[in-house]
Each structure stands twice: as structure tokens, then as C-alpha cells.
Amino acid sequence: MTATLSSQGYDQAAFDELLAGLDEPGWMTDRRRDAFQAFCDTPWPSSKDEEWMRTDIRLFKLDQFAKPADPASSPANPGLLTQGVDLGGHVQSVDGDLVSEELSDSLAAKGVLFGGMQRMIAEHGDKLRPAIERDIVCPKYDRFAMLNAAFWTCGAVLYVPKGVAIEEPLHALSVLGAEKSADLSRTLVVLEDGAEATLLAETASASPDAAGLHCGAIELIVGAGAKLRYVNLQNWNNKVWHFAHQKAVVGKQGQLQWTIGALGAKLAKVNQHVALEGSDAEAQVNGAMFTQGRQHLTYNTHQHHEAPYCRSDLLYKTALQDKSRTVWRGMIKVDKPAQRTDAYQRNDNLMLSEHSRADSIPGLEIEADDVRCTHGSTSGKVDESQIFYAMTRGYTRKEAVRMIVSGFFQQIFDRITIESVREALGEAIGQRVQDLSNQ
Amino acid sequence: MSFHSVGSVDEFPDPSSTLVEVDDRAVALIHAAGHFYAIDDVCTHDGGPLSDGPIDAEAKTIACPRHGAKFDLKSGAALTMPATKPTVAHEVKVEDGQVLVRLSD
Ligand code: FES
Q1: 3-state DSSP of A289-343
Q2: What integer pLDDT is reported at residue A2 of this predicted model?
Q3: What stretch of H or E contains A154?
Q4: Considering only A4-13, A51-60, A305-314, A384-393, which range has the smallest mean pLDDT?
Q5: Minimal Cα distance from A238: which residue of B?
Q6: Between residues B1 and A13, which one has the greater pLDDT?
Q7: DSSP for residue A165
Q8: Are strands A267-276 and A240-250 parallel, antiparallel or unpaired?
Q9: Domain range holding A52?
Q10: B46 at the A interface (CB within 8 A)?
């Protein structure tokens, strides 16, 4: 059932080969064909596009990457987010192939669906089709979205029926293993009305220096009165190109807590959108980014208030080392009917070196007149006197910097209600803090 | 760090500026008035692609296509606003008809 793309490139031959190896309903194949046609007819985004102005992809060459012909072996490490948690199920993929999936019997008995995207669509296509056809992430948004929609091979589906609340978190892990490997994956989460679930998703590289490509799409549908906690830890190595379109829609009185940890990638360009579609819906978005070397991470966030009485609260914190660079562009958009909106966005940056650079570009677009929309952004350097003080108390410089960095992220950690996630994120960031005196 | 070949001399007419890749870095290779220069192809003001900008062979400068900041081809110094920080200049030499670039850092 899993297809192997052995030919290099993303041309007609590669596309035909992919289709020949797939076992999926005709409507899905039609969607792929449509996206492939658009992909062929569309150029890559250029630095003249406002959205890509600060994200230089001129050195990105798609043809250098492909899904490896030889299936890689499963990761030895089950992931950072699994530690100390009783999971209700998991999905794992390596180099774009599903390697294992599991769901506890008790959850399956309640009608919960969780597993690899291809199997889910083959077995439950009719149930999932309406959600897929909503095009939460527009398959033609840009050439990366088209590439993913045409060539995706793996990913996870979580479907929770009406009123079912899942206590145990579910886990999804995507690994890149082979050199120049491509991971084109999709995630679809559907929480029907009144359902509750927690999904912990993470990405990782099996080797610290294998170049790779990830081009993904994440779609989250939170029904009326439903509650989703979604964690996404991006922990690729620093040689991976990472392009992703991620969007959640939240129904009436639905609640979403979406936490992003962005640590890896050579260059990342992520669009993270939240649309509050039903009245009285709520979204909390937390982002922790830590960059080093020559990493470049761009996150475009969008809080779209479509209905009245909704609340959205976004906080992104970034610490930068070496010559790394981050760009955060945030937009709060409030439609005319969305009266009594309460929206907030904030981005704080901590520069740990002279040569790092963080751009913060908040934006508001408000059409309703009775709203409260606020935003803020700060950028600061690490305070040498704090380091000195800690050192006079017997800490090494490295320990002192670690403490300052973890203090900086504390506000994010305080908002993360899942203890294991808090710890895993803190640990992953701590590992990346180097001794500043070397710089 | 060592010298990397970025192509043969006749691939770069005089005058021209070309984006070349050296060890995963975007470098603008400029051929002007008989000289080769190599600087980071990223404007220090706001990341504009310097190699797309006009060169002044006599003054030995290149202007960023986005907001016009000028940089010295030899040293990478920022000469005019809105750029205030220098871009990185790399070492270039020609050997056996090949243009070689060594990254400075
Ligand atoms: S980006 Fe080069 S002058 Fe502004």
C-alpha cells in the first residue's frame, strides 16, 4: 500500500509512479491530479512576494530531494514527547513511509479513529471525505501547498466522534533518516461536537547531518463545544528545509490550545492559521523558538475572528544564538460580524549573540467596531549583569545562560498544561544552549 | 576554509553579478572592470538579493534592488542608508580559468 518514489524529481513520471502504487479512493486521486496540474503551472514564490521577502529560498532545489527507494529502519528513539506519558495510541513514519501505528482497544471501541493517513482514507474515506473537502489548508495556496497536495505519502488522522472525551494523549512522530530524503506529510484532526483530545506531534532527524526536505500540511477541525490540545515540536536537524501550512478552525464554544516548539530546520517557513468560526470560540497559541548557527525560521501567524464573542491569545517567544535569524509576522483579522472580539498577539525575542537577528511584524485588520485587539513585541539582549551575578553565586557561565533562557521561556511553559510536554521542551532547549563566551 | 570553484571565468561576463552557492551559502559573484568580487548575497538592511542589483564598476559598488543601499564590492562595507552594517566579503581568485571563492567566516 505504501508507494515508493524511486525516480528523482517531481515530474509527470514520478507522479504517475506514485499514483500506480497507491490504494485510495478515486476522489482523492482526483484531488491529487488537480493539485499536480496546478503545481506544474505555478512558479515558486519569489522574494518579491511580500510573504517571502525575508525568507530566501533561492538555494532550495526540490529535485535534490526524493522519497528514498529503500525503506529506512524505524527510529530507535520513540520521541521526546512520549516520555512519562501513558499514550492512547501512536503513529510513526520514517522518510515518508508509515512504520507503525496503534490505538488502544478502549478508544477504538468508542469510535475513535487514529492511524496513518493512507490507511485511514482507504478504510474510512467516506467518513473523512467531508472534512478533507473543506480544504482547511487551501491545496493551491502556493507551490509548496500544491506539492504536498499532489505528492503526500504519509501523515496521521485523528477522528473523535461526538461527545467522546479522550484522556490519554495520542502521539505522532515523523522522522527523516536517509540523506536527501523528502517527507511530504499531512495531518488531519477532526473533533466532532463536544469531543476532547490531546495530540502530541513531533518531527525529528535520525542523523544530525543528513540534509532533508519536509513539506507538510496540518488541518485541525474543532467542532462546537469541542476541546483540542495540539502540540507540535519541530526538531529536525539543521540541514532540513521545512515548509508547512497549518490551519485550525474552531466551532461555536470550541477551545483550542496549540503549542509550537520550533527548534530545528535549516530554513523554515510556516504559516500557522487559526480561524474562530463559531461564536464564543477560543484559541490559545503558544510558540517557543530557539535558533542557532545559521538557522532561519519564519513563522506567519494568522488569527482570524469570523464570529462574535471569540477570544484568541497568541504568545511567541524566541531565543536566538550565533548568526541565526527569525521572522515572525502576525496578523489579527476581525471580520465585520465578529463583534466583541478579544484578541491578543505578542512576540518576544531574546538575542543571545551580536549577530543574530529577529524581525517582528505584527498586524491588525479590523472591520468590526466593538473589539479589543492588542499586540506587543519586545527584543532584548541577554543581560550580562545577570550572568555575572549568577556566576558570583557559583554557577558556570553556561549554567547562568541556561537559567536566563529558561526564565525567558517560563511564561510559555506556564501556559503549557501538559507536564511532560513542558519538560520535554525545556530539556530540548537546554540542550541547545551553548556557552556564550565562545561567541 | 578552502577555496571552492564556482565556475569557469567565461561563465561570468564583465560586467555581471551572479548568485553562486558556496558551501550552502548564497554568495554574489561580481565581475566588474576586470575584477572578481564575492560578497554575501543578502542585504544587511532587510535581506534583499544583492546580486539582482545594479553594479557601478568604477565606484566598485553594488546597490540593493530593494531599497537602494550601496555596498563596497571589496570590503562589503555599507556605504549608504538604509543599510548600516557591512555584508561579508569573501576572498576570490582565478586559477586555470576557474573562479575560486573562499568564505571568510
Ligand atoms: S533590503 Fe537592501 S536596502 Fe533594504
Answers
A1: EEECCCCEEEEEEEEEECCCCCEEEEEEEEEECCCCEEEEEEEEEECCCCCCEEE
A2: 46
A3: strand A154-160
A4: A4-13
A5: B24
A6: A13
A7: B
A8: parallel
A9: 13-382
A10: yes
CA of B82 from ligand 1 middle (Å) equals 7
Angle formed by the axes of helices A117-132 and A26-41, nearest 10°? 80
Among A48, A49, A58, A439, pick the best mutation site for testing chain B contact (most B Cβ within 10 A).
A58
Here the cell at position A96 is: 515518508
Write down the pTM of the prediction.
0.91
**pLDDT score of A332:** 95
Tell whether A429 is covered by a domain: no
| Ligand 1 pocket, mutate which of B50, B61, B62, B67 (most atoms under 8 A from CB) | B67
Domain ranges of chain B: 4-102
With beta carbons under 8 A apart, name residues in chain B contacting A53.
Answer: 46-47
- How does pLDDT run across A262-273, given as a tens digit for each residue? 999 999 999 999
Domain count, chain A: 1
CATH entry 2.102.10.10 includes domain B4-102? yes
For the stretch B33-88, pLDDT in tens is 889 999 999 899 988 889 988 988 888 999 999 999 999 999 999 999 999 999 99
Q: Is the pLDDT of residue A301 over 70?
A: yes
